[in-house]
Amino acid sequence: MSIKAVDLNFVYSGGTAFEQHALFDVNFEIQDGEFVGLIGHTGSGKSTLTQHLNGLLKASSGALYFNGENIYEPGYDMKKLRSKVGLVFQYPEHQLFEIDVLTDVCFGPKNLELSQEEAEKRAKEALALVGLDESYYKQSPFELSGGQKRRVAIAGVLAMEPEVLILDEPTAGLDPRGRDEILDVIKGLHDQRGMTIILVSHSMEDVARYAGRLIVMNRGSKVFDGTPKEVFRHYKELEAIGLAAPQITYLVHDLREQGVELDPDITTIEEARKAILELWEGADGAGAPEHEADGQAKAGTVGKESSGDIHV
Ligand SMILES: Nc1ncnc2c1ncn2[C@@H]1O[C@H](COP(=O)(O)OP(=O)(O)OP(=O)(O)O)[C@@H](O)[C@H]1O
Ligand SMILES: [Mg+2]
């Protein structure tokens, strides 16, 4: 089971003065259960690409296979595709419109022609998944906080019970707490429900932390595709296309230049913390400070004396 793009091209307003070639020969295959981060500078084609994956936009040329079937074959059931591949747009709260939260989340399943009872059952399950209990059911979506609105919008897509969940910058404009809440919900859907996740993000920190694979777009072309560590090794090339590695990776590189033997592939704060503590322990023998670093202590060149004030 997978989503496979073959030589996907897309041109907006083809044949007019406003013609805009937005995707160039994009190829990839995403397997069931993957957590993919989709990154790229503004205008690189991320939203255009995601809208192909659930059939909202049709490629100008190329093919897209969902579970082995070419969705562009005549007679392909696009409605079914849209229920299997759920897409949460950027600023999805702009699309909340019903009188209360429960009615809003029921909209998708009712569109699938499910009974009112079944639609409500699914809506309630979806709201529970995003951490909104029944006290929210009768609230107006417009009275909620930014993070809560976002969760209602995600529940609206989850209520269709998709196999694949695509989120186009789900944390844009949220405060740090709202951001963490949303990312934790998404991580839970992946880890506990085995859902395939495609997360469009401008945050290198977030994709390094949550995604197992990154697809990098630049001017409509796919330029990198690999694990976060593989991709962030190319941080110089990423900088050239308006991206960067996570900040912690730069700090690790700075420390290495000063002789601290850290793995240059570190991309998350948790990894850096663990590695630094291991070095500290290695240099300090058994007398480690009170913390819960696990694993073997690596021999390191940094000790309390030479490390100065590394606080983790
Ligand atoms: N409706 C449209 N009509 C014409 N051109 C469009 C349309 N939507 C997007 N484009 C163009 O297609 C290209 C890709 O845009 P897209 O919105 O997919 O990029 P993006 O990577 O999602 O950007 P952002 O990070 O700003 O959301 C850009 O050059 C953009 O100007
Ligand atoms: Mg976009």
Automatic annotation (TrEMBL):
Residues 3-244 form the ABC transporter domain. It is a peripheral membrane protein. The keyword Hydrolase applies. It comes from the Bacteria. It holds the Pfam family ABC_tran. Transmembrane segments: none annotated. The keyword Nucleotide-binding applies. PROSITE patterns: ABC_TRANSPORTER_1 (PS00211), ABC_TRANSPORTER_2 (PS50893). One of its GO terms (cellular component) is ATP-binding cassette (ABC) transporter complex. InterPro entries: AAA+_ATPase (IPR003593), ABC_transporter-like_ATP-bd (IPR003439), ABC_transporter-like_CS (IPR017871), ABC_transpr_CbiO/EcfA_su (IPR015856), ECF_ABC_transporter_ATP-bd (IPR050095), EcfA2 (IPR030946), P-loop_NTPase (IPR027417). Belongs to the ABC transporter superfamily. Energy-coupling factor EcfA family. NCBIfam families: ECF_ATPase_2, PRK13637.1. ATP-binding (A) component of a common energy-coupling factor (ECF) ABC-transporter complex. Forms a stable energy-coupling factor (ECF) transporter complex composed of 2 membrane-embedded substrate-binding proteins (S component), 2 ATP-binding proteins (A component) and 2 transmembrane proteins (T component). This is Energy-coupling factor transporter ATP-binding protein EcfA2.
